[in-house]
Amino acid sequence: MDFMTDRDVQKYQEDGYVILDGLLTSQECDELRHRMAEIVEQMDVPDHCRTTFSTYHEEQLKTQGNADYFITSGDKIRFFFEKGVFDDKGEFIVPRERSLNKVGHALHAYEPLYKKVTHSPKIQGIAKKLGLKSPVVTQSMYIFKQPGIGGEVTPHQDATFLYTEPLGRVIGLWIALEDATVNNGCLWFIPGSQNSGITRRMVRTPKGTFPLTDFIGTEKTYDEDKFVAAPVRKGGVVLIHGEVVHRSAQNTSADSRHVYTFHIMESQSTKWSPDNWLQPTEELPFPLLYTD
Ligand SMILES: O=C(O)CCC(=O)C(=O)O
Question: Is 80 exceeded by the pLDDT of residue 178?
Fold first, then answer.
């Protein structure tokens, strides 16, 4: 039997998301977490985080450094921190393994364990079950949602950041490497909200200008009561339609909530917007999902 059933497909199509238990074993989750712990142990903290700045001009350079670091991260493994984890000399004020918000955006390409999971038979089976003909992997992230300080992710649609023509071609796969609960900041969705288009797009600004990205349009205000929690057991995966509205709360609990997440796009008859912050590069064109 397929890992994803017809009923799961129906639920995904109706609600814009579906939870599938048991994508990974507990041991596979621990191996991915262990590898990430090694990456964090060995990380070089980026200069724009480490250096102290005193003048307005220097502060601006720091902001520019931050923006450059982000916009060129699509084909690299880079580190993005929670707020308030460095002192004014750029030293950690929390343990380094508790400082990170996420690592992105090319674990799927450069880290063998992550690559293996991304292209695993179960993931390929999910894409086939959803009828994808020629899906590619566009980006990947490891999100930590640190105990006590893991920040909230405000309501959004992924197509705001990963825009295609036509819409409806991007799917997020969000794999819980630990139990994701209402207490430690699981995802919340507005079921069915994938059917109303998008109201906001993040676009690159013209070359040579700053900031490097801007928003066109604004996010709608959503009724809090419409959000439904999506707790997931360790090893489970949530499939996220590119236009479904979702969010996650701050993690105020004592538990972390590590996830590995990546996005795929049906590349057949789809135009990836050249205005998206994320662009395929010569070093890393978006890899095909279907491999042997
Ligand atoms: O992991 C989270 O808390 C939020 C992730 C999310 O919303 C996304 O990747 O689109």
Answer: yes
